Amino acid sequence: MKSILILALCAPGCFWATTKSEGDAIRTDVGTLKGRLDVKEKELNEQIAKLKQVLDDATLVLKRNNAGLGADVDQLRNDVRTANGLVVTVNTTVTDLKSSYDTYRKSTDARLDAIEARVGQIESGKPSANSSAEDLWKLGNTAFEAQRYAEAIEIYKRLTQTYPTHDKADDAVYFKGQSYGYLKDFDHAIGAYQQLYDKYPDSTLADDGLYFASLAAKELKNCTEARTYLAIIKTKYAKSNVMKQANDLDASLKKDAKNKKVCNT
User: Fold this and answer.
1) Averaged pLDDT for residues 139-167
2) Smallest Cα–Cα separation from 189: which of 233, 229, 161?
3) Full-prediction pTM beyond 0.70?
4) Looking at residues 107-112, what average pLDDT do you find?
């Protein structure tokens, strides 16, 4: 079981890194990637220089043979053919290297553009049309941390609707309920916690959600409903980390069952 109760009760902003630090970290990665690209370009230039040296050496062979007019004509022709072969090989190799480098450069530039776009999205705090589940989770948490609860709710909704099987989907439903709670919209908070229990009963947050559902029901003076959620915790989640709180709250609600200031139902 996660100790989400403790997290939920601390001041918003106590457990997430800022998007600025994320942006700086990603830009550091971009700088590293650009550095690697420069190294690749340097290596290419060095290889081309070596190939040009081979070409120069072949040219010297031709000149040397041309100077020795008494040399055997057949040997001179063989040297010429060898030199011409070297020239063709060098030119082909240089062309292949440049083609490979151009392909690598285009691929790297596309990756850099995608990274820059993602940094901009994260720093803007707004999801894009193709935001991943991870991006939505970070953006939702950022909004929650900044106490922009209405915005957080919409982002968490989008995560659960678009990626219902993602491993953060149950967390998103839970924090959607927390956001409604901070807005004192207790009816919707209960709805979110019920959704968590119905769709993700095996989530490590399901019992915490039921406990907060009971607290929300208490705020609405629906004590019978509140005790129902507590009963589920006792029967379904015997090892719950909120069991003590659930027992204490249940005892309090039972005691105040006839107190109209506390319980209407």
Assistant:
1) 96
2) 229
3) no
4) 61
Residue 58, phi then psi, degrees to nearest 5: -65, -40
Phi, psi of 38 (to 5 degrees): -65, -40
Task: Give the closest residue to 19 by CA, choosing from 168, 152, 143.
Answer: 143
From the number of C-beta atoms within 10 Å of its C-beta (0-12, 13-18, 19+), residue 11 rates as exposed
Contact (Cβ atoms closer than 8 angstroms) between residue 152 and residue 175: yes
In the DSSP assignment, the letter for residue 11 is P
DSSP annotation of 130 reads: T
Tens of pLDDT, residues 169-223: 999 999 999 999 999 999 999 999 999 999 999 999 999 999 999 999 999 999 9
DSSP assignment of 133-150 equals HHHHHHHHHHHHHTT-HH
| pLDDT at residue 18 in the model | 47
Where helices occur in 163-222 by DSSP H, the ranges are: 169-182, 186-199, 206-219
Q: How far is CA 60 from CA 9, 150, 220, in A?
A: 82, 78, 96
* φ, ψ for residue 242, nearest 5 deg: -110, 15
Q: From CA 26, how far away is CA 32, in angstroms rounded?
A: 10
What residues contact residue 50 under an 8 Å CB cut-off, 6+ apart?
none
pLDDT in tens, 4-54: 443 443 444 443 344 666 667 777 777 777 777 778 778 778 878 777 777
Residue length of the chain: 265
Paired tokens of 134: 């991870």
Q: Are 153 and 169 in contact (CB under 8 A)?
A: no
